[in-house]
Amino acid sequence: MVLLSAQRWVRSRLTDRFWRVQEVLKYARHFRGRKNRCYKLAVRNVRRAFVKATKARREKKRSLRALWITRIEAASLEHGLKYSPFISNLHKSQVELNRKMIADLAIYEPKTFKSLAALAQRRRQEGILAALGDGKEPEGIFSRIVQHY
Amino acid sequence: VAKTSLTSPPWPEVKLPDPVEEAKYHAEVVQKVNNMVAMGQYGRLFAVVHFASKQWKITSEDLIMMDNVMEAECGDRIQMEKVLLVGADNFTLIGRPLLGKELVRVEATVIEKTESWPKINMRFWKRHNYQRKRIIMNPQTVLRINSIEIFPCLS
Fold first, then answer.
1. What is the domain count for chain B?
2. Which GO terms describe its molecular function (chain B) (predicted)?
């Protein structure tokens, strides 16, 4: 609206207040109580809802990862392995499935998950045997039993 | 000599099977799976594919939505190359970390390129008269997985 003199400016009134109010109330329609009808209460609660949604979008990634880890732990315990050796041995066997996929496989493809658990178990045994070594004393080191010649 | 609590180590003794026999058993299993794949004795195949920096578990006739743009027009056929796992009812092929392109072929078609629903980013500090509101609409692409094929070239 182009109003070219001061007297005209003073006489202009807000005409789309209804739509400005509806823009806010449309996000509050599913709230409980008077805050889904009354603008003053709705404004505060819609603002809180937006801020909470923003923060929750960052938290969602963390909570979903914790959920997947819980599910993988439960599924691997059914096959006799805990979560930490399962994941570490899968990683050492160069299998790069992420936790979301392993959790989905544990739910929908039980046979595949069983084979993954067997792979992790076998890699764990090989790792333990490699760490134990031959069972002989290392050379050039004094043992507790001193041989007198 | 009498057995005490320290004769054997506290961890359970682990014995690996004989390597020669194990190699024979492995070769047999690989032969069997190769024959099954060659005869076509598998039902529906599923694959785990690394695509758009995410991993997806897909079958044929599946819809996938990625949260970014794709530099391909609608209706283009695309082959997904980073396949991590392929499975059927009786066998699974686990890639270390990826399976070869001669083994698996995953084809998809770009169906739709849209924007997401308007997401609202709001920041608010109370008692400081500070609030910022920003509406974000990410571009999205919808793909349909046409088929997953495997070829009998195991060894």
1. 1
2. structural constituent of ribosome
